[in-house]
Amino acid sequence: MSEQSSSFEVNFDGLVGPTHNYAGLSYGNVASLNNADAISNPKEAALQGLVKMKAMHDMGLKQGIFAPHARPDVSALRRLGFTGNDAQVINKAAKESPVLLRTCYSASAMWTANAATVSPSQDTTDGKVHFTSANLNNKFHRSLEPSTTSNLLKAMFNDDEAFAHHTHLPDQPFFGDEGAANHTRLCDEHGAKGLEVFVYGASSLNPQIVGPSKFPARQTLEASEAVARLHQIPQEQRIFIQQNPDVIDQGVFHNDVIAVGNANVLFCHEQAFLDQAHALTKIRQAYTGEKLHIVEVPTHAVSVQDAVTSYLFNSQLVSLADGSMMLVAPEECVKNPKVADYIEFMLGANNPINSVKFFDLRQSMQNGGGPACLRLRVALTQTELSKVNQATLMSEEKFNTLNQWVEKHYRDKLSDHDLAEPQLLVETRTALDDLTGILNLGSVYEFQK
């Protein structure tokens, strides 16, 4: 069997962290803002995510686990002038700036679609899988993530002959980079050469490229171009498309809220891209595979608002072992009549998407992230998969172990008042110390060094 025919797309889902809370930190993310100050349930959130991971594994898909980050980020609070031991830092922050404390408690690293951009070895001139951690500088709470993300990626993909890791882009808006949430790869099959589609919201250098006026464009053209260079993607295998500024202003903060691709299928809303007809023509012309399917959802069937509230396009598209393609969608899609009707229509239409599975991800959805937000896609050959840290791959035993770990360490209720308790810091560090052993990660967290 050739390496091409034995290649897989592995989904590494973010394991929701013990400090999952609703702080409403993400301006431009409607769900995040609407649920600010609600009481969260970290235990339920983590268990919901594990159920999804296990279900993907049981379908015969390759499924991995991406560990959460250590929170609160006490070192960030110290950089902001809060002094003393850890407990004193937390107490002072709670009294002087509870908003900053909430920010440093954010469990947003659970959305690993923002962790990095990944290019498989079939697309890179050196034949390695390339990773660039996103700088996420548009939001302070997410800008705290890149260094730990890089540590985790290196612990998961720890063979220098197969994997290349790049430092995140400079930490300022000029190179705003939000990772794979604004990147997709189109190909006849995962082991074939692909077309890497980079979607940006604005340009830092070209004033003629008009961005959104209400909400920020989190991905710049310059960042996407830099990642493509770092990953050594040939010119003919990469394309840069602008997201529609109007839909960004309607709450489509990342491209994966309005479009998703898998293999030779691009599933998108008709308002996803600026000058959509021209954008889709460019994609069709650049695609060198045998056949590209573009499933374009009309506005009269599903409005942009319905797309945002249901997260229809923040679903996963996955290729099953029998060659069929499945939409992995949040339960909110069933509850929206127009979205549910469209999914039923799509499954009966002439396209490769022929089944759907719905998941309860309410805890994540309320904070602004659906199934696609929770996973980082990594296309790997069988040889490359064998070089991945095997302890980070899902199995029946791993699922049971992680469920027990969550039940042991996680709270089932978290409010602002709880964040002021230094005991929560002790609990989270104890939990993550145990987890690094379960996932064989080594000392990836600052508190372990």
From TrEMBL:
The active site is at residues 178, 254, 373. The keyword Hydrolase applies. Its EC number is 3.5.3.23. Gene3D superfamilies: Succinylarginine dihydrolase. Pathway: Amino-acid degradation; L-arginine degradation via AST pathway; L-glutamate and succinate from L-arginine: step 2/5. The keyword Hydrolase applies. One of its GO terms (molecular function) is N-succinylarginine dihydrolase activity. Keywords: Arginine metabolism, Hydrolase. InterPro entries: AstB_sf, SuccinylArg_d-Hdrlase_AstB. It comes from the Bacteria. Substrate binds at residues 23-32, 114, 141-142, 218, 256, 367. It catalyses: N(2)-succinyl-L-arginine + 2 H2O + 2 H(+) = N(2)-succinyl-L-ornithine + 2 NH4(+) + CO2. GO terms for biological process: L-arginine catabolic process to L-glutamate; L-arginine catabolic process to succinate. Catalyzes the hydrolysis of N(2)-succinylarginine into N(2)-succinylornithine, ammonia and CO(2). Homodimer. Belongs to the succinylarginine dihydrolase family. This is N-succinylarginine dihydrolase. It comes from Pseudoalteromonas citrea. The gene is astB.
